[in-house]
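hey so u asked for the seq, here:
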Amino acid sequence: MKRNALYVLMALCTAVPFHALGQRTCGTGDHFQQALLKDPSLLPRTKDAQALSEQWLKTHPTAGQKKIGTIITIPVVVHVIYENNAENISDAQVFSQIEVLNRDFRKLNSDTGDVPIGFQGIAADVEVEFCLAVRDPNGNPTNGITRTLTTQSNFSNADPKSSAQGGKDGWPNNDYLNFWVCDLGGGLLGYATFPGGAPSQDGVVCLYTSIGEPPANPFGGPFSKGRTATHEIGHYLGLYHTFQNGCAGTSPSNCGSSGDRVCDTPPTSSSNGGCPSFNQNSCTETPTDMNDMHMNYMDYVDDGCMNLFTYGQKSRMLSVLNTSRSSLQNSLGCMPLSVLDASVSLLAPTDTLCGSNQFAPKVMLHNFGSATLTGATINYQVDAGPISTYAWTGSLATLSSIEVTLPLTTASLGAHTFKAWTSGPNGGNDELSTNDSTNSSFTFMNGNSVSLTLDYGSFPAADKVTWDLTNSSGDIVSSGGGYTQNTVTLEVTCLEPGCYMFNMYDIVDNGVGSFSLVDVTGDTIVAQNDIFNYSFTFCVELPPLSVKETGRLEHLVAVYPNPTSGFVHLTSDLFVSGVEEIVVQNTIGQVVYSTLSAEVRSNSTQLDLTSLEGGVYFVTVRTATASITKKISLIR
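ran it, structure tokens below
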């Protein structure tokens, strides 16, 4: 018995050659072998899980032969990993896949009438259903779908289950069936892990074109009706292929320990593709010789020709769900949402905060309840200081979020803690208080934040490109390097008031990509669509407190070019009808340039700012009834 179990594990399904997806391809066996090379302890763990399953079957010999009346629901989280829009499949396609699974496992599939007469008596309602998770591992509501943009063109040589390799780390496997969707590459349709595998690897992976059914699945072809997931989840629940080990397990004495280890699935000499004849019989078994059950979900036929699990397969799946995967039955992943549940996550302050003595905290307000959120109190506190409150009102649908900027808060320079929490959603009591609060530690520094974005594209020598920022004394205040190709990197640094030199170093002198330097107001200091040896001097001040852009009348004045190297053109009909003054101010409100109305003689004028230092400035046009302010970036 042990030797047979080992043989089955080591000879699991292997991928067949790919022929333009004309033949189903399952990589479960290959991935088991690869995982075994990396982790030799996988084999004893898998054997232990199988032993528990076998023992359960002995004590529940008729479990799959009748309706139990209790439905086991498995929470599913679908991790969509995409490089392009086609791979970023729609929510509707994911929903369609869950519907297909529930029909197939409950024997509610419309093609169950196609089951041959000889097998109709053993076609089983597995009494297992699937739901997209409504709660994440922290108890917060979710739609059960995560989306990850990747730089991997496919995952033939990378792990979609690893964030470090461009994929997505799974959720706790004791509470969720992790279901990864991506471009697998190499013509592979999918693969799964058997019970007993490593928790970080546990779950199912399927090709994005195989998910769901038309019209939600727009890709077409023989494997576009969602049966790849049905097949792979069969493996996840302990089933082997019906053609496992060819014509093995042909008698009552060995059908439970050979072949696919299920006695009511007739042995099949090899995998079937397409839609074979119902009369095909490739093995001879006793005491009753039966035709091949190629329409079983665990064969390789086209999606449209699969239509049943058997009672014996149901028994094996229930044995797994009551032993090594029993924790799924206790998962809270599909517990209904609370009616009132508001939460906040912190946007600012985090890490280092630049400024002088005030900052505007920002939080993301979430509605995790089933009722529309129309009001909530946001409480916040710096260190152990007084608690401030902000009354938010609006209309926030279930699972929606909105960014909320709180009133200016005063803090001294140095290290601090910040805490924010919600209370009184819709004037009532929050039903899930564990997700109400958020907090951070941050350092408040005197200065202005500047962000550098580096996009290396396909540049293979990206790791040799470096950069630095030096102050007026020549000291390096920030630097970076060692990046990799096909990455976009954001570096943020806090600079005290003064002038700085930005330096880009490309020692191989053939860089490909782009870089840009942006200040705290969102203005571009410098932007280049290439990477090369480059130096640029600019100045920063404290964040502007006295100068604000107007919003309603801003469109009445056009400013170009912006950024500029010195000369700025302004156009507006206001110039003809009566401009009192045009002034230019720096970021602390000092007037550095002004033009009187007598000097404006048409609907356009030019400002000469070549004498000013590089940096951000504000151009204000004043009339008798309005004041319009525009931001400009002066590049040196």
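The chain has eight helices and 31 strands. The chain has four domains: 2-63+71-244+306-330, 342-444, 448-540, 554-634.
lmk if thats what u needed
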